[in-house]
Structure formats: C-alpha cells, structure tokens
C-alpha cells in the first residue's frame, strides 16, 4: 500500500464534530509522507467551504486536495463543450461552475445538461418536475449526477442524498446519468491518478458500504470501512466485504504499519 483516499463526512467528521483520531491520522499521513487525497460526494458546498470547515475543526487542507463532484462535473462539461447548465444544487455550489451559463431557476428548456446534486430540503414536486421537463425537452440534454450516494448521516439523523432523486429522473426520462462522484469508477480513477498511485496500492477509507467500499473495490482499490457515520452492523453481513474494518479512522495507522509492505 502506498496511498490513501479519505472520505470526509462520517470518517473525519460528523456534522460539526470532529471524529476520534481524525486530526491525528491526517497528521500521521503527512508526517509519513504518504500520498493522500480527500474524496467527497458533497455537492451542497464548494471545495473552498469544505476546506474552511476542516480548518475550523483543526485539519488544514488546501481546496486542491479535495476531489468533489462539482469540480469534476465542470471539467467534464468543458471537455464536452456544454455551456448551458440547469443546476439542481444549493446556490453556494454554483461557484464551482463559474464560466458556464447557468439557466434561470424557472427555465424548463434549453439545457445542454441537467446537473443534479444534494438539494436537500430544496426538493419539492415543482422542482423535481422542472428537472424532468428539462430532460424531456428537445434536443435532449445530458443528465449529470454529482454522485449517487443514497443517504448520509445528518445532524438530525439519516437524510436522502442526491442518488434517489437522480434515480427518479432517470426512470421518468429514460436518460442514463453520467455519474461524476462515488461510486463511479472514473471518480476513483481520478483520485488514484492525483496521488500518483496504482489502484491496487491505494486504500479508500469510508463509512458507506456501497458508495465508498463497493465502488472503490470495483475500481480495483482496497477499501476500509469505519464504524462511524452511516455505518450499520448489517453492512458487515451483505455481499460487500471490506478489506479492513476500523472502529474509527484513528485505527488506520496501526493497520497501515502491518500492511504497507
């Protein structure tokens, strides 16, 4: 093993609380000069805001060290030559789409791509139906998913993430989404390339048995599951088998010393 990809929410912090061993483990990775990157499916805030939150919790991270779906989507859209975007994500996320034409909030046609992130309580029937109308307008736009996470552990309990809303729009429109986030293999490939490693020598550590562990393993990485965040005991009795299970991310350094060779 030679590189690490850290999930954020549920691994390093939960809500506004730093999880046990998180700051120490990141400091250990830096001290040992282990290449590492922070992967998140968060689409409710830009990377700069995520870095600021980490700093407030005591972990200094440059925004460029965070791989998040909005930045990946922007890169993909520019590569495809798509400029007219209907964005279904919080207003703060729009900063990551600077330079692209964001359609007005009431537009029902004219999109080159419909981009769906974690709109949380911003979803209602009218909003979801507007996304559907944009997708079935001609010419048909692309459907971009800022991750396919099913749910996450919010301060008030489990909360739906972007995945279920993308799935509803896919079912209604018949358009296959382009997934720019976990569990898409291309997202993990981007992370592995960024740390200059190989998939088989890179460890993904997360709290989501599907999005983090299964997604990483399908991309050829090793994957560890932490018993924090959205972890449930039933996660260990399904068809996905983590390469390691830690009570907290703080147990990573000891495991790494045994397996790094």
Summarize it.
This protein has helices spanning 22-31, 47-56, 69-80, 125-136, 162-173, 185-194, 209-218, 252-259; strands at residues 3-7, 13-14, 17-18, 36-39, 66-67, 84-88, 101-102, 113-116, 142-145, 151-154, 157-160, 178-179, 202-206, 222-226, 244-246. By secondary structure, it is α/β, with parallel strands linked by helices.
Give descriptors for this structure:
261 residues, 15 strands, Rossmann fold, alpha/beta, globular, 2 domains, six-stranded parallel beta sheet
Largest sheet geometry: 6 strands, parallel
In helices, the fraction of residues equals 25-40%
Unreliable parts: none
Structural class: alpha/beta
- Number of helices, counting only DSSP H or I runs of 4 residues or more: 8
- At CATH level 3, the topology of the largest domain is Rossmann fold
How many domains make up the coordinates? 2
**N-to-C order of helices and strands:** EEEHEHEHEEEHEEEHEHEHEEH
* CATH homologous superfamily grouping of the largest domain: HAD superfamily/HAD-like
The tally of beta strands, per DSSP, is 15
Mean pLDDT: 93
Strand order of the largest sheet: 5-4-1-13-14-15
The span between the termini is 7 Å
Q: Overall 3D geometry?
A: globular
- Which CATH top level class of the largest domain fits? Alpha Beta
Q: Give the CATH architecture of the largest domain.
A: 3-Layer(aba) Sandwich
Strand content: 15-25%
Rg calculated over all Cα atoms: 18 Å
């Amino acid at each position: 093993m030679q590189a690490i990809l850290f999930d954020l929410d549920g691994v390093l912090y939960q809500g506004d609380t730093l999880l046990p061993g998180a700051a120490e483990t990141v400091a250990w990775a830096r001290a040992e000069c282990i290449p590492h990157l922070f992967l998140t499916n968060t689409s409710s805030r830009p990377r700069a805001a995520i870095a600021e939150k980490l700093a407030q919790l005591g972990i200094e991270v440059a925004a460029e060290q965070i791989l998040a779906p909005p930045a990946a989507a922007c890169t993909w859209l520019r590569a495809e030559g798509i400029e007219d975007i209907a964005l279904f994500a919080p207003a703060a996320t729009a900063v990551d789409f600077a330079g692209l034409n964001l359609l007005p909030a009431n537009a029902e046609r004219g999109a080159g791509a419909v981009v769906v992130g974690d709109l949380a309580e911003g979803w209602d029937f009218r909003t979801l139906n507007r996304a559907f109308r944009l997708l079935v307008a001609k010419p048909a736009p692309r459907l971009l998913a800022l991750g396919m996470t099913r749910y996450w552990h919010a301060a008030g309990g489990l909360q739906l993430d972007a995945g279920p809303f993308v799935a509803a729009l896919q079912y209604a429109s018949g358009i296959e989404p382009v997934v720019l986030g976990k569990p898409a293999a291309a997202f993990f490939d981007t992370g592995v390339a960024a740390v200059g490693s190989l998939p088989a020598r890179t460890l993904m550590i997360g709290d989501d048995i599907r999005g983090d562990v299964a997604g990483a393993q399908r991309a050829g990485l090793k994957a560890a599951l932490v018993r924090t965040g959205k972890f449930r005991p039933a996660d260990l009795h399904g068809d996905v088998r983590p390469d390691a299970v830690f009570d907290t991310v703080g147990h990573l350094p000891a495991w790494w010393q045994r397996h790094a060779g």
